[in-house]
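Entry 14. Ran structure prediction on the chain below.
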Amino acid sequence: KFDAKLYDQALTDLKALAEGHASSPSAPVAHLLMAGVYERQGRVEDALAAYVELRDRYRASVAAAEGTFSMANLLLRSKRSDRESAAREMWGDVVTRYPKTPWAPRALFAKASLEDRSRTRVVDSQLGVSVPAALISYRTLVERYPDSDSTEIAWWRISEMYDDLKRFALAAQALESLASRFPNNRRDAQWRAAELYDKKVKDAAKARDAYARVPPTSPHYRDAQKRAGFGR
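Output, structure tokens:
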């Protein structure tokens, strides 16, 4: 009925399930789907209320994790003056409360992307200076969820942010992590790391090692081999 856009009929069935079988494993999913129906109908406040009820009544369920993620998206599209901070808080809640669900890395990436766009800054406890808030979120993503679909982009943004902060050694390390985990990346990450070690960090030994790891698929492969000492 949902797929057929018979939303009123779907709501009738879902409400009956949610009210008559509150202890059923299907009950939280029913609340989640109800919120989805309300969204499709443009009933934003009803959708938000359904997400809140889902979170309150079935906080430990995977459906609540998905609902919290979706609620953040809905808040971001709302007309609330605090929509960005509210969405960030919701995505952060997914990461804190549901770290082992597939929604946690998605929430981290969504949170980081929003922070990236809004250029939010915070003090980084590791560096002791003001940094883009997205840097911390991206870094948390690659540390906790290295196999996430968003990890490649996260490593790239981390390297760019460290470069902007003139933390060139950290930028190079991020690029090497990107190159190691994603050898077919399109950003020529290993070459870029070698260049940073060579021209910014001024560490000849690390530069040679990094040049030696530039793959044959790189357009800079021959130059890298020469700089690594393998050719003239």
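The longest helix spans residues 62-77. Will compare against last week's run tomorrow.
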